[in-house]
Structure formats: C-alpha cells, structure tokens
UniProtKB/TrEMBL annotation:
Record's protein name: Lipoprotein
Alphabetical list of InterPro entries matching this protein: ABC_SsuA_sub-bd (IPR010067), NrtA/CpmA_ABC-bd_dom (IPR044527)
Cited CDD domains: PBP2_NrtA_CpmA_like
Signal peptide segment: 1-29
Record's subcellular location: Cell inner membrane; Periplasm
NCBIfam families reported for this sequence: SsuA_fam
Gene3D superfamilies per UniProt: Periplasmic binding protein-like II
Sequence similarity: Belongs to the bacterial solute-binding protein SsuA/TauA family.
Keywords: Cell inner membrane, Cell membrane, Lipoprotein, Membrane, Signal, Transport
Record's keyword annotation contains Metal-binding: no
PANTHER family: ALIPHATIC SULFONATES-BINDING PROTEIN-RELATED, TAURINE-BINDING PERIPLASMIC PROTEIN
Organism: Streptomyces chryseus
Pfam families: NMT1_2
Amino acid sequence: MHAPRTPLRRSLAAAAALPLLIGALGACGYGSKAEKDDKVAPVAKGEKIGGVDEVRIGYFANVTHATALVGLQKGLFQKELGGTEVKPQVFNAGPSEIEALNAGAIDIGWIGPSPAINGFTKSQGQNLKIISGSASGGVSLVVNPKKIKSLDDLEGKRIATPQLGNTQDVALLNYLSEKGLKVDPSTGKGDVSVVRQDNKEIPASFESGALDGAWVPEPTASKLVAGGGKVLLDEKKLWKDGKFVITNVIVSQKFLKEHPDVVEAVLRGSVKSNAWIKANPDEAKAAVNAKLKADSGKELPAEVLDPAFKNVETTNDPLASTLREEAGHAVKAGLLKDPVLDGIYDLTLLNKVLKAEKQPAVEDAGLGAK
C-alpha cells in the first residue's frame, strides 16, 4: 500500500538544487522476427484546420507511448488533421522534450508524469498543460533471482532506475523509504545503491552482473526477464485498482490558446487510437513494433514485445489523482519541494471529444484550469 498522500502547499517550487524529475525512457529496440505492419501513413490532404500548416508532435520510441506510436503508424492523427501536416519528433528523455516545448520546437507531446510536473513547476505554471492521459502501468522491479529472493533482500543490493528523478526513480525511492531503507536521493547511496543508468544500457549491465535489479518501464522490464530476470514487483500492485499514470499528453499553453481546433483534432486522433488499440490488440502490437523499427532501426522480439505490450494499458483518463500522489512521493523522497500543481490540467477539449464519442468524461482531481 502507498503511504498517505503528501500535502502539497501553495508555494513556488524550490526545485533548482537538484536535477529534478528529469527524463523518462530513452529510445530502445532489440532485434526481432515479430510480425510486420507495413502500412504507409497517409499524407496531409484536404483543408487545413484553422489555416495551420503543421502540428509538431513529440514522443518516445517506447511501448508506454503506444498511443502515439499507433496513431502515427496507422495515420489516425493525420486523418483527423486533414491538410494540417503531422510532424513527429522522437525524444530520448523528458527534459529534452520539455526544452523543445518551451522553445516552440514542438507543440504537443507524449511524456511521463515526472517531467510534466517538473516542467510545470519550473515555469511557475506558464509553459504547459496536461490535456489527456495516454497509458497506465507497464513498470516493474525485475531482479536477478539468484541474488534477490524476496522484497526483504533489497538491502545492500544495486538497483537501477533510468535517470535521477525520473518517474521510476521517484517510485523506487518512495518504495524503499516505505520499507524503512534510507537512500540519499541525489547520490543514490545508502542501504540500497540506486544506480541511474540509461534504459538501453540497463539490460547489458544486468546480464553482466553489475546490477542486481532494476525498477524500469516497458519494454526494458521484459527485456530483463528475457535475459534471466524475474519480476519481483509489478508497480500496479502498489496502486488503487492497479492504475497509475505512466504517460500523459501535454501541450504548449501558447499553442493551445492560439490553435484549440488543432489540439482538439489531435485529441480525437488520440482517443480513436486508444479505441483502435483496444479493439485490435494484435494489429496494434504489430503497429507499435513497426513504428519502433522506423524510429530506432530495430524491432522487439516476440519474447519482449508480447509481455511488454500486455503490461501497458492505454487510457484517455489522465488518472490525475495518481499524478498528485506521485508529486507527493517526490517531495517525500527529497527530490521536490512543495510543487504548485493547480492548473496543470485542462481537460476541456478531451471531454468534448469523449462526449462526441459517447464516452464518459474524465476528471482532473481538482488540479484543472481555473
């Protein structure tokens, strides 16, 4: 069970002392014989929405970004945007995507909760809005079963996370704290050695014996299992109803204000992509792999792709209460001070789209636009 939610006071985040909540999963892929999806996405044609030439969309080449991968691969975003061209851009980590959003290099992005929180608080609520959910789950603690038999065996071990302060790093630090194990959040030193390492490097380190385990998202978790690891804890078990946000959709506030019709069209594409994924899981899995190959040059083998895809649930719901709780975990871990999250969500357009699709509205946990 999680510890009680940490109160978030109404003061500016004093977060500059540490590289806070940075980064999510880097692009990764592994050799594969998985089935193909060779569909060529349609080009922009027809009327431009509001006269806008293009919309620049950021995402990671990563199974937890399945909505973006499928929507781009199958042309579902482009179909909604007509003559306004989709310009996709792949990122390896959250900070670079937030930097691109701030610089006006992208307009909309799929991203993890921690970099979204960090970007919002560092800009004092001026740079982005979370406008939709995208995925839940898909994170596990995978260990070397010869070295770690149970959750009581973590003390003295070396456990990796993708990056200091990223979503999985916060989750591990919070879990260790709840177990009574002390770790310095900035150095990773303590009762457990928390090793910050790029996702694409973790499998090799794990197989060499340099790591005893890793708290990682998909597909890295399934890659570790394929290399002899064992899932000791699926993070879903720590959350109410097994749901917690792993990927959100964010937008530049400037772009949202100037081009709400374009944002709405992208959200229609996102909602329809999620519906298509649920209705066509095998085809969706193939589409994810095809887009991963296009972006990284490599596919995932079936032994990695199948469990990774199964472990991630696409959703339109941003699961806002879990984002609030994740921010509380970062505060408790010493990675964040009193973030002001009021107004981080604007779900107006998403709920408009959901209503048109005869789907229920989603909530912002009191953190919506005032």
